[in-house]
Amino acid sequence: MHYGQARSIITHWVHIQLFTISSQICETLTNVLFAVPALRAHFSFDQIPFSLSTQHQPLQQPMARILSLLHSQTLVTLTGVRRTVVCRMSLEARARELFATAVEAVQPDAVVRRGVERKDDSLVIDGRTFALRNNLHLVGFGKAVLGMAAEAERIAGDHLVKGVISVPHGIQETLRCHGKSQMLLKDNSRIKVMEGAKHNLPDGDAQHAAQCIKQLASELTEKDLLLVLISGGGSALLPAPIPPISLEEKHDVTRRLAGAGATIQELNTVRRALSLLKGGGLAHVAHPAQVVALILSDVIGDPLDLIASGPTVRTDVWPEEVISILQSYKLSDSLPASVKEVLGRGSPRWENIKEESAGKGGVLNTVIGSNSIALKSAGRRARELGFRPVVLSGDVCGDVKAVSRLYGLLARFASSREEPAPELAAEMLRLGPEVGVESWDLCRTMQVLDEGRKEGWGATCLLAGGEPTVELTGKGRGGRNQELALRVGLELRGMELPPKGPMFLSGGTDGQDGPTDAAGAITDGGLWEEARAQGLDVEGTLKDNDSFTFLSKVSGGHRLLSPGLTGTNVMDVHMLLLPSIPIRIPNDPEADDRSLRYM
Ligand SMILES: Nc1ncnc2c1ncn2[C@@H]1O[C@H](COP(=O)(O)OP(=O)(O)OP(=O)(O)O)[C@@H](O)[C@H]1O
Ligand SMILES: O=C(O)[C@H](O)CO
To answer: InterPro entries from the entry (predicted)?
Structure first.
């Protein structure tokens, strides 16, 4: 049998459309076919359906022939051949499902379950074993910590002696209202829940919680194990200013810094220098107990010393660095005397912390959930939903204007039926570093898109993550994800509409984008026309940062992404769904419209 025969079998099989193979075999087969250039040039795999059900004998024979022809798999794999009802979800439904999958992968209880294994009377974390002898204590601070604590208590059982967590004001009531009971502690829990930091700002309640956490940590002995649960928002929930700095003084410095546009790196570098518990202070207080920190990251690159200002990561404070940050935002002259005094003391502070050590008195810091885990999970699901997944980058930052331009260019690059103009790639390479995307990642992605376009690989799901910024120029209601989606919608203007054209989604994994009820939005090339038909002013909306109001009105608000509060936070997820470009097989009578399908 030669490739021509194989091709007709494959074509026949693809066009049956009602039958499919398990996703594992689908992947194997697809990989095998991609590996054979003679076949690669002729087939578009966007039509490989998916989903699983009962065995279907008639398909086994042609598949066996394909596989044996390609010298790869044995017939054993064919026992997985199944019959199915083809699921043809719309692009939009799949975009929403992929976002839900990304969020699901980083649910606080799920990440703790994956990160902590109970083996008899010990916990296994990051490959290390910690003996449990009714010696486990727990503290935590951050927006996702309630769900993490509930799961940790379920795993540790009676070995948990006691715990204190500092969580956002009103979170228990909110989670109850959203039916997220698995994220709440049971009535007889040994963990004390302390709510504070209203509007994400350190306050007296959060300071009291920090004192209780410090107290618990300071009472531990070398026989004890302290589990520290950390997630985004932890800095505001663990305020412990170094005396004589008052909470108000510290808050005033950080508030002015944030207002002046300081990055989270700059902000937390300053916070660490003014705090008793940040920058390794908590681990210092807990010494000589063994400390294990489970971290759900909300900072690009997962820097341990910056997430929640690194209370379990020994970090030396360099006053010169802190002063230079304050100077760059013109704050150094107006500092309170107490802050100047503390900065005058210098570093190092915590000599007794043995980092990454599993021995007594050591500290293990481990990231159990992050944006990249969310993207990976969405990528796996994308494959099941018929896409070829490509992760562009998890470090997207910078102004939403530049970010939206990059996605617009990527969409044009991928959708072009002809060789894209070199200026397109050049502009992307220029923009990439501006928005945190490495040139290498861009080149890799362009190569995948280019090959997909030339060889008909089918629909692509381009995934990215991070936290871009919006320059606020107006007083409207919106968030960075909605504004990004709106801007990408404008970039896609003039391109084909889904299902033939691209679709973009941007969503905050916490379910709340800025001060709005939506997490983000879904847009495509039709947005501009829809807005015009409804008499909505897109330019005015952008000037006033009023994306939420706009998206609530346009097409009855159906473009909004509103999953409700998710109880987790690993920054944002971006998704560009790129349908396949139909390819024609030259001089092939079978290459009619049946092969020109889109996902
Ligand atoms: N009207 C608006 N339009 C666009 N963006 C806005 C608007 N109002 C606020 N923002 C942006 O929303 C961001 C704050 O939103 P959000 O509360 O989702 O922050 P976050 O960074 O996700 O917080 P955390 O990481 O603590 O959860 C800020 O970056 C701010 O610039
Ligand atoms: O709490 C904080 O410092 C921010 O959410 C970053 O982790």
So the answer is: GK-like_C_sf, GK_N_sf, MOFRL, MOFRL_assoc_dom, MOFRL_protein
Residue 310 CA to ligand 2 center (angstroms) comes to: 9
Q: pLDDT for 215-229, tens place per residue?
A: 999 999 999 999 999
CA of 234 to the centre of ligand 2 (A): 6
Residues within 6 Å of ligand 1 by CB? 200, 232-233, 298, 469-470, 472, 476-480, 483, 508, 510, 512-515, 545, 547, 569
All residues at 6 or more sequence positions from 215 whose CB lies less than 8 Å from its CB, including other chains? none
What lines the ligand 2 site, CB under 6 Å?
A: 232-235, 264, 268, 298-299, 307-309
Dihedral angle sign, alpha carbons of residues 189, 194, 200, 206: negative
User: Residue 296 half-sphere exposure, CB side, CA atoms within 13 Å?
Assistant: 35
Atom number of ligand 1 nearest to Cα 482: 4
H/E segment holding residue 137? strand 136-141
Q: Summarize pLDDT for 461-500 with one digit per residue, the tens.
A: 999 999 999 988 899 999 999 999 999 999 999 999 999 9
Q: What value of ipTM does the predicted structure carry? A: 0.95
